UniProtKB/TrEMBL annotation:
Superkingdom in the source lineage: Eukaryota
Involved pathway(s): Protein modification; protein ubiquitination
Name of the protein: BTB domain-containing protein
PANTHER family, per the entry: BTB DOMAIN-CONTAINING PROTEIN, OS06G0674800 PROTEIN
Length: 376
């Protein structure tokens, strides 16, 4: 872990110097950017050993003056959100401070300090500033060492640029905010935004949904979707999903009926189920008494009523009406909105229906760097 220690010391030094770094020190800033990036990837490594070691070492290095460094990083980011002019040195300094904040956001004591110091408000304001001012900066813009014959070789994942895109500062901001929300959930601090943001929760949610729906890079979409899960929105909003979702409450072309144990039923479109969630459609060759893998009955009644085929699928008595309605919301829209009281039942349904992306969101599992975004 000698490499980790060198990188951590570099980050420690760059954050300590803060605004003392000027344009003539660009070479040092480039080095600090690379080091901070390496630390970030180690701290959030899928390897538990690497992540644990990196976090332990970072905690030890920051122990004497970590509070002061964080205070400076927050001040830099807060100031950035009020600026109009933004040059290369500013990009580098902002990027380094964002990474430093995101690294510290995984350490319990620093999480608490960041939140109490208004870190959530600062990050939300920064994210809003990036989106409102069209701040599109790829890492290649301020990391010249990547411009070499090996710049197209990526050892960690495929299509690296597609994951980060040209919004690296926005990605770091979303990443840091996701960590703070994760801390807020663990500590049962559900009013984490109370009194901190200048615009409503609904506006913030719409902003995140737009990131998921547009042509943003994969990393932005994953982190935006992850943050949305802390507001009760689970899944992956998209423009196509909004169009398909309009059919959810329309029965005109519905050709399949889901029947619950208590006699309640829901009309759905077989073609949408077949594409989005085939596990809800048992094989037609199953007999009346056989069970499908998801606990639904294999009985399919087919008739020519109104000139179209109709199916009736009887579901297990364990299937809850409200949970099924929410699941259909996900199947049609690509995401659903649910309170904590529905999450447990939805997890069971998602597992039986083999909806792994939904299970990931319901479990609030962090997105892994480099993973492709689900196309629902």
């Amino acid at each position: 872990m000698n490499f980790s220690l060198i990188c951590l010391l570099d980050v420690h030094d760059s954050v300590r110097k803060g605004w003392q770094i000027c344009q003539s020190d660009l070479s040092e800033m480039f080095r600090s950017e690379s080091a901070s990036r390496a630390v970030l990837m180690m701290i959030y490594s899928p390897s538990k050993y690497i992540a644990s070691k990196a976090r332990s070492m970072l905690s030890e290095i920051l122990e004497p003056v970590g509070k002061e460094y964080l205070k400076r990083s927050l001040r830099v980011l807060n100031f950035t959100s009020t600026r109009d002019n933004f040059g290369i040195p500013d990009m580098l300094q902002t990027g380094i401070n964002l990474v430093a904040l995101t690294c510290c956001a995984c350490l319990p004591w620093y999480q608490s300090y960041i939140v109490k110091s208004g870190g959530v408000k600062i990050l939300v304001a920064f994210i809003k500033w990036c989106l409102s001012n069209g701040v599109h900066i790829g890492r290649l813009n301020f990391a010249p060492h990547l411009h070499n014959i090996f710049s197209q070789r990526h050892c960690c994942w495929v299509c690296k640029e597609d994951w980060e895109g040209n919004d690296i500062l926005l990605l770091y901001g979303l990443w840091g905010l996701a960590e703070l929300l994760h801390y807020g959930s663990i500590s049962k601090n559900f009013d984490i935004f109370s009194g901190q943001v200048e615009y409503t929760e609904a506006q913030f949610v719409r902003m995140l949904q737009e990131i998921c729906s547009d042509n943003s890079a994969l990393g932005l979409k994953w982190n935006a979707a992850y943050i949305l899960s802390y507001f009760g929105f689970y899944g992956f909003p998209s423009k196509l999903g909004r169009r398909i979702g309009k059919a959810l409450d329309e029965n005109e072309f519905a050709d399949t009926r889901l029947i619950l144990a208590k006699g309640e039923s829901m009309s759905v479109h077989g073609v949408i189920l077949a594409i989005r969630c085939p596990s809800l459609l048992p094989p037609e060759e199953l007999s009346h008494d056989e069970k499908a893998s998801d606990g639904s009955s294999g009985r399919c009644a087919i008739d020519k009523q109104y000139g179209k085929f109709k199916k009736e699928i009887r579901l297990s008595s364990h299937v809850d009406n409200q949970a099924l309605a929410k699941l259909l919301e996900f199947i049609y829209l690509g995401y659903l909105h649910a309170g904590d009281e529905h999450v447990k039942k939805l997890k069971i349904l998602a597992k039986h229906c083999s909806l792994q992306p939904l299970s990931t969101m319901l479990g609030k599992r962090r997105p892994k760097v480099g993973h492709s975004f689900p196309h629902l």
